[in-house]
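EI: anyone free to look at a 166-residue chain?
SC: sure, send it
EI:
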Amino acid sequence: MKTIMISSSFFGLLLLSGCAADPTNDPHTGGFFGGVRGLAAGDYEVRQQALQGERDESLNQLRALREEGAALETERQMKADEVAAQRRQLASLKARNQAIARQIAQMQRAKSATEQRTAELRRKQQQLTRNIEQFEIQLDQGQMSAQQAETRQLSLERQYDAIKNL
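SC: here you go
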């Protein structure tokens, strides 16, 4: 009787431990008796709720990642638009800079031509000045006749008009 009582106590404890829900117990791996025990103890429901919680958490993480991805894509597009606008401004600035460079080159050519013209005018004016001084000296020394002086004066006036018309 003592053995029956010990056996029944042991069997009762075994039954009680089998009825307690164990969320770490995988009823799928317990075989037939494990399945019966999982149904009776509620292990299936606990496991199903745990898996559903994991699924919900995964879906929430996925939603959060999609939202973050959309926000990042929006930010990337804004940055791309800013870069495109800056590139357009840079291209405009480069075009204006090239136009200024062309103007400078044109002004330098004009300056060079003006300097050449000025140098030519100065050379002719200096020659006219020397010719006038020489004519004056010849007049003062009486080395010319009136007709030669008149011809020389007309020549100097033509030389002056040629310089003035340049």
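EI: The chain has one domain: 22-164.
SC: 👍
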